[in-house]
Design brief:
It is built from 21 helices and 17 strands. With 561 residues, it is an alpha/beta fold. Among the domains are: 82 residues, Gyrase A, domain 2; 65 residues, no CATH class; 92 residues, Rossmann fold (3-Layer(aba) Sandwich), CATH 3.40.50.620; 135 residues, Isoleucyl-tRNA Synthetase, Domain 1 (Orthogonal Bundle). A hairpin with a 2-residue loop joins strand 13 and strand 14. The protein binds one RNA strand of 77 nucleotides through strand 9, strand 10, helix 17 and helix 20.
RNA sequence: GUGCCUGUAGCUCAGCCGGAUAGAGUGUUGACUUCCGAAGUCAAAGGUCAUGAGUUCGAAUCUCAUCAGGCACACCA
């Protein structure tokens, strides 16, 4: 990696220049002005320890730099590095030869990671917020896998609480309505809260009557509606290119005795006590604001109790690291789950909880709060309107810490304002060039056939036998493109460290921009076969990286648009 | 009231482990087509980095306070 290379070069030189130096946390960065160089190191942070002015330090270090393959340019306390053509050419060779392994970090410690996200209640269709967790979670999974981790994706189904009863009651009302009975949800505000009033239960009721005898048994109705919701949710996830290794049922957690078991373990830890008829957990001893109820006065478990068992089970299944994506509205929950894991003897630092800010729908330029409105726009609606690719890209585009404005009108336009098209277009354009090298062309005016510049065999050999030396004379034109291609390595590492995927979106936009720019300035299919083959290889390498990055987002890389 | 997130160009956002002239997209204005995809490229204009103080040789970046917006503060899930 270029950055690593220059950091090592500088550190080596630094030790020769100043043998007594203790710490040297020098960072390679991009110069503000590309005229200075391609990479830069600022030595100012060393000034204090060395008691020397930054420019003098830079001059001293410069003497010991090997300058093998690069040039050095000193400005003030900055050491600027300029890549030689050989290094640039070798990068193209590396991309072509390494393929998928080009940006895969070497010498890393792969972890067995459990990634949990979406985990919606099986009581209704996904809303747009779920779409954000689904897109980001699956992209993060792809990223972590790309990096080298062993990732297991999980969806926790909250199928055990009172909301299931509520679902059954709601279905019953819909059934009665279908039978022609004059019933509706209660008028009273408070009582209405015991029902799901969305119209999505109407088709479920219809389907139920087709398959079953009419019944008012809420248990049967609850189970039916729950299964149906799960089925619809999983269908949609599939369509959205989100694939879970396991849908973990909360109900199973209870019936298998795991909830009871983890309760006993907590009891053994001595961190439970009774108060006002309920059993409390001393979570405040582990940094939580207050203690939490574990068993209610009526003897039933709280949601937390099951969740504790669930997280315990994840560790017990051998995962070294747990990553959860939760909505920011659950942030108050973090401390108590971590507290419980500590009490049970697990290292709560191995549980990372990514809190995602919510999605604002923007309709006709106005922000609409994602509430539980009756006629809300579901994720399914959104995908129908905008398409899977644009929806996925858009949902991944912003830092998870920031609220995301999803402008329906803008995304629907599907034109220049939508960055995904810009990126996909770059890929399609690259494919088009590669196609044109081996396909005969027909002049539309004369009907005359123009032979392809290369046969398929020649093209394949050009790629297979690519040698860095072959493009050295022409590589300077592709410099900023190659720098960006190489930057894929840093992007992968940064994204893994920060658990973020918006960085991949940004990278793609930047790479596409560099490619479009290169394309405009450098014609690929030129007379000179050697130049053509070299540029073809650069296009091929670009296409390869675009594809790899798009694959992480699970956005398609079209050959044609 | 307490805790968490956010405040940077008209709009949407990067940059935030302190360092060179604060960047990108979009919008505005203007250029670029004998030729591989113009869904493209190039350029111009556009800034009190919410406000105030502090730390520092140096602050958009760190600290504190204030203001503004969002979210959460259940024996619900």
């Amino acid at each position: 990696m270029y950055k690593q290379f220059f950091e090592n070069e500088t550190k080596t030189a630094l030790k020769q220049a100043y043998p007594d130096i203790q710490e040297c946390n020098l960072r390679v960065e991009k110069p503000k002005n590309s005229d200075f160089g391609d990479f830069a190191i600022n030595v100012s942070p060393l000034a204090r320890e060395l008691k020397t002015a930054p420019p003098a330090i830079a001059q001293n270090i410069e003497k010991y730099l090997s300058k093998d393959g690069y040039e050095v340019n000193l400005i003030g306390g900055f050491i600027n590095f300029k890549l030689g053509r050989k290094m640039l050419a070798e990068t193209i060779e590396e991309i072509i030869k390494q393929g998928q392994n080009f940006a895969k970090p070497k010498n890393i410690k792969p972890e067995k990671i459990n990634l949990e996200y979406v985990s919606a209640n099986p009581t209704g269709p996904f809303h747009i917020g779920h779409g954000r967790w689904a897109a980001m979670g699956s992209a993060l999974a792809n990223l972590l896998k790309f990096y080298g981790h062993d990732v297991y994706q999980e969806f926790y189904i909250n199928d055990a609480g009172s909301q299931i009863q509520k679902l059954g009651n709601s279905l019953l009302i819909r059934l009665k309505q279908l039978k022609g009975e004059n019933v509706d949800f209660p008028q009273d505000e408070l009582e209405r809260k015991n029902y799901y009033q969305g119209e999505y239960l109407i088709p479920v009721a219809e389907k139920f009557l087709k398959e079953n005898e009419y019944t008012e048994d809420v248990k049967i109705l609850s189970d039916y509606a729950k299964k149906e919701m799960e089925r619809l949710q999983q269908e949609l996830l599939n369509k959205f290119r989100v694939h879970f290794d396991k849908f973990y049922s909360e109900l199973d957690l209870h019936t298998s005795g795991k909830v009871e078991n983890s309760y006993k373990k907590l009891e053994e830890s001595g961190k439970l006590y009774e108060k006002e008829g309920a059993i409390w957990f001393k979570s405040s001893e582990y940094g939580d604001d207050e203690d939490r109820v574990i068993k209610k006065a009526d003897g039933s478990n709280t949601y937390l109790t099951a969740d504790i068992a669930y997280h315990k089970d994840k560790f017990d299944r051998g995962f070294e690291r747990l990553i959860n994506i939760w909505g920011a509205d659950h942030h108050g929950y973090v401390a108590r789950v971590k507290a419980s894991l500590e009490a049970l003897g697990y290292n709560s630092e191995k549980l990372e909880i990514l809190l995602g800010q919510l999605v604002n729908l923007v309709i006709n330029g106005e922000q609409t709060r994602m509430g539980k409105r009756k006629n809300m726009i579901t994720l399914d609606d959104l995908i129908e309107e905008v398409g899977v690719d644009a929806t996925r890209f858009w949902m991944c585009m912003r830092d998870i810490n920031n609220t995301l404005d999803f402008d329906i009108e803008l995304a629907k336009k599907s034109t220049d304002e939508n960055p995904v098209f810009y990126v996909q277009y770059a890929h399609a354009r690259a494919c088009s060039i590669l196609r044109n090298t081996i396909n005969d062309k027909i002049n539309t005016e004369t009907g005359e056939k123009i032979a392809a510049p290369l046969t398929e065999d020649e093209f394949n050999k050009t790629i297979e036998n690519f040698k860095a030396e072959s493009i050295i004379d022409d590589v300077e034109n592709a410099k900023s493109l190659i720098l960006k291609l190489e930057d894929f390595k840093s992007t992968i590492i940064l994204s893994e460290q920060t658990r973020s995927v918006y960085t991949i979106c940004r990278y793609l936009s930047e790479l596409a921009s560099e490619f479009h720019s290169y394309y405009t300035k450098n014609r690929v299919l030129v007379e000179d076969k050697n130049i053509m083959k070299g540029r073809l290889s650069i296009v091929y390498a670009t296409k390869s990286i675009l594809k790899q990055a798009l694959d992480i987002l699970a956005v398609t890389a079209p050959e044609k648009m």
